[in-house]
Amino acid sequence: MKTEEKVNKLYVIGITLVATLGGFLFGFDSGVINGTVKGLEIAFDAQNIGSGFNVASMLLGCAVGAFFAGKLADLYGRRSMLIMASILFIISAWGSGISTTSVEFIVYRILGGLGVGAASVMAPAYISEIAPAKYRGALATTQQIAIIAGLFFSFLSNYKLADISGSALNILWMDYETWRWMFWIELIPAVIFFFALLFIPESPRYLVAKNHKEKALQVMSKLYGSLTGERKVHEIDASLATDRHKPRFSDLYDKTLGRIKPIVWVGVGLAAFQQFVGINVVFYYGAVLWQAVGFDESDALLINVISGALSIAGVLLSLVLVDKIGRKPILMIGSIGMSVTLALVVYAFSTGSLEVSLASGQETLKLSDNMGMLALIAANAYVMLFNFSWGPVMWVMLGEMFPNQIRGLGLAIAGISQWGANFIVTLTFPMLLGSMGLAFAYSLYTIGAILSVYFVYKFVYETKGLELEEIDKIWKK
């Protein structure tokens, strides 16, 4: 019979908050590009596919970072990978702002992407490995709160900086354009993240896997007390006892069935569907999107701030419910809700007509007042639904669903799938916008949301309330 856990809640929460600074930088680094697109186009003379690659270049780094971070974390530790990510954030924030050519900018953004990719998979994995089962969903959900907070503060700082100078294109301080300062603001949280990581412990499950049981026991005892800590170390050790070899990608293959383990495909599906609903089009191109339907730059940036606030509200609701009603019901609610709201956005955009803007000389989609309001409300409802469901819950599940022996490897495959899908959606949006229009682009994301309903119903199992060492059993049904 299990003894009652005596969780050192303040210590667990403190560690979680430090780890989620990686999520904050993930969000900030992803969202800061939103207000700089026009500045990049003018500074580097990039249009359409060039502009898309300037924005999407970071995602190549994200895919590589997520892939290798999972593997390297099994060799060198979760905390070590988070420290490396913090260093990459610092280099990228400085370099992106100081760049003078598109190639130079892309190099720094890819470096930042390596940090984002590593933090995106390591932060939820680390939190899952130190959190008690009954709070794990809520604590892992704070990763998404941090991501959205990072997005929100990047939108807010972009808005305020552009407001001070008059435009992202204008000179702000020290003879540098405002868009460059938008990147440099990120240096503040990046430096804080680096130093904070020096004060948190390594994951106890990693320590047991590396046969450092005494160190693992010290960490577990501080988290749960000596008796519970010792029991948990024995449980983790037992889950690895039958096969304690160095993790390798062949572990993802089921030799008995002669195929890749089903849990790997579920992880890939969760990661890819999170992106195929088109959420990062709103995050990365929100300002461009709303200017394309007639809002001026200031209003478009303000809409981003409002969307960020609604996103935080959605994640907070998920935090309250994820350990009560479970992961699968929240994913299903989100998939159905996003299907409906995206369909409404498509309908609103399909009623518009193209007109040439006198101010910019570019074509914009003109909507009636009613259709413009419908698009605005539906799009923000969609963002809130995403951040209630797929935004946090996908990361919660990826962090907890893989067995100890293959957690890093599973995260590597899921991570590269998530960022690869993100790259495809982000790179193609400017081309779709220029050639097929907003309605067509959003119809593709609507199809992605509809397909995700079936995926959740058919393939996703509930993991609420289970210890990490127990979860593997449900995927073997």
Structure description:
- By secondary structure, this protein is mainly alpha-helical.
- It has one domain (9-476): Growth Hormone, Chain: A.
- Helices cover 75% and strands 4% of the residues.
- It is built from 20 helices and six strands.
- The strands form three sheets. The chain has a two-stranded antiparallel ribbon. A two-stranded antiparallel ribbon has the order 3-4.
- Helix 13 runs antiparallel to helix 14 (297-321).
- The radius of gyration is 22 Å and the shape is globular.
- 53% of the residues are buried.
Mean pLDDT: 76
CATH class: Mainly Alpha
The assigned CATH architecture is Up-down Bundle
Count the E strands. 6
Low-confidence stretches: none
Q: What is the 3D shape?
A: globular
Name the CATH superfamily assignment: MFS general substrate transporter like domains
Q: Structural class of the helices, strands and pairings? A: mainly alpha
Biggest β-sheet, characterized?
2 strands, antiparallel
Distance between the termini: 25 Å
Order of helices and strands: HHHHHHEEHHHHHEEHHHHEEHHHHH
Give me the CATH fold name: Growth Hormone, Chain: A
By DSSP (H or I, 4+ residues per run), the number of helices equals: 20
